[in-house]
Amino acid sequence: MSVTTEGGVLVVTRHPQPGRSLARAALDTALATAAFDQPVNLLFLGAGVLQLLPQQDSTSVGVRNLRKVIDSMPLYDLERCYVDADAVERFGLTAEDLPCGAVLVGREAQRSLLDSHQHILGF
Amino acid sequence: MSLNYCLLVLAAPVSGHTSLTAARFGAALLSRGHTLGRVFFLDNGTSNGLASAVTPQDERSPQQAWSELANTHGTELVLCVSSAVKRGLLDAAEAQRHGFPAATVHPGFILGGLGLLVEAMQSADRVITFGAAG
Asked: How many CA atoms within 13 Å lie on the side-chain side of A30?
């Protein structure tokens, strides 16, 4: 696939949710940037793709369900998100697991994503 | 060429030396004539602003390193308010709102929303993340 976005902010999220708050912080940052009408993209990289597991139920843990927040992203005009294709395969996720708007990106496309944004935030 | 920097700090001062590295990076860029308008502390990074943190005498205090940047160069030190409040970092207004007797945020730091990070990114030539380890 080709990545055409120029400028803007790329939020790279590399950690799964359980046990850390970093994934949530990355998502909040992306949503806040979008809320201020600034161009922003989200890249789920490596173990970060585990945030996309469907049917998450975090009620017994007592924390918010991250996948629900991810599914609400289009409401904030975050229509697309980029997902590390290698990691999806490695962690056994399927295309049906991913939220709508997910775009699978291989190494080459990841490189051009990193190239084409003005700022990169690494979570 | 002089550049305008913004730093995003995600690491707590007690979990390794990332926070100190970030503060040194800030001091280094300022000493070379660049500007550092704002440092935004998010997630575990907000504990950099805890007023009651005590650093052992033979170690460098990250909080002091940050305060020096603020005092000498007017760099704004902003703790993400939602991350901060969760961790017990309250300014006078938040302490009053939540019924605590005193503020716990060091006076060199202020609480603010993610909008302040967005704003800083807009005007920055370079945004550098000092992330959480692991």
From this structure: 32
How does pLDDT run across B106-132, given as a tens digit for each residue?
999 999 999 999 999 999 999 999 998
CA atoms of A100 and A89, how far apart (whole Å): 18
Contact B129 A123 (CB under 8 A): yes
Question: What's the pLDDT tens digit per position in A19-54?
Answer: 678 999 999 999 999 999 999 999 999 999 999 998
Decide if A1 is inside a domain: no
Q: Chain A to chain B, count of Cβ pairs less than 8 Å apart?
A: 50
Q: Which domain holds residue A108?
A: 9-122
| Inter-residue contact A2 to A115 (CB < 8 Å) | no
**A4 located within any domain:** no
CATH of the domain at A39: 3.40.1260.10
Which of A36, A38, A69 would best serve as a mutation to test chain B binding (most B beta carbons within 10 A)? A36
Smallest Cβ distance to B127: which of A22, A32, A121?
A: A121
The ipTM assigned to this model is 0.90
Let me know: does A113 contact A2? Beta carbons within 8 Å.
no
The catalytic site residues of B sit at 80
Both tokens assigned to B91: 């300014």
**In CATH, which of 3.40.1260.10, 3.90.550.10, 3.40.980.10, 3.30.420.40 is domain B4-130?**
3.40.1260.10
In chain B, domain spans: 4-130
